[in-house]
Amino acid sequence: MCSNYQPVTRMDRMLTFFGVERERDELPHDVFPTGLAPFIRKAAQGSGNKVVADGAFGLLPFFAKEVAYGRRTYNARTETVATLASFKHAWARGQRCIIPAEGIYEPSYETGKAVRWWISQPGDVPMGIAGIYTKWKHPDTGLEMFSFAMLTVNAEGHPVMQRFHKPEDEKRMVVILDPKDYDEWLGCGVADAPNFFRRWEGPLDTRAAPLPPRAPRTVSGRVVVPPAPPSPDPETGELF
Fold first, then answer.
1. Does 64 map to a domain?
2. Where is pLDDT greater, at 18 or 1?
3. Which of 26, 40, 54, 113 has its CA 20 to 30 A from that of 102?
């Protein structure tokens, strides 16, 4: 699974590698669950065009009461995306997207403790990660926003991705799309979409990239507790 990544935010890279125009540039930054980042979806029905929009990393189904729900829905297992309540409505409506990423982070336990590693494609080429999205309306304020989740597959035996996560945990990896498949992934029927549930077999670059220590934030001299880590799905107990 992937709970932290660096999105593609530069206009020139979005156009060069994904064929879509973004209205603004942003400096590179890391995104964690509930953070805003760009994703690519189909434009108007039948137009065949793609558009880029900003959404929260962590899919918010219609019954979510707050944005914090996205802390447990940032990854969707391909095995259950069509059946879990959090994801099945977006999946059934064909609301698939591409999540442009300069690279992703995963934890390695090879030293005996968790160390964050950076994973990217060689040659400064960004990833197009398969995802699903929806538009969510806040039940109290009426505010509407997009949100999205990355799709994951089993990574047992993968030459790179089997190195990450705790030894006793199932190995998972995001679905990295071949650029030639971008348009078909967005436009195919729901029944054909599982054809893209494949492990990436191309080369990947990796390096250790530990997070710097974070001092507690203070407001008016009062320590503010950092956000809670992702919590299990209420239906399955899984972190996807």
1. yes
2. 18
3. 113
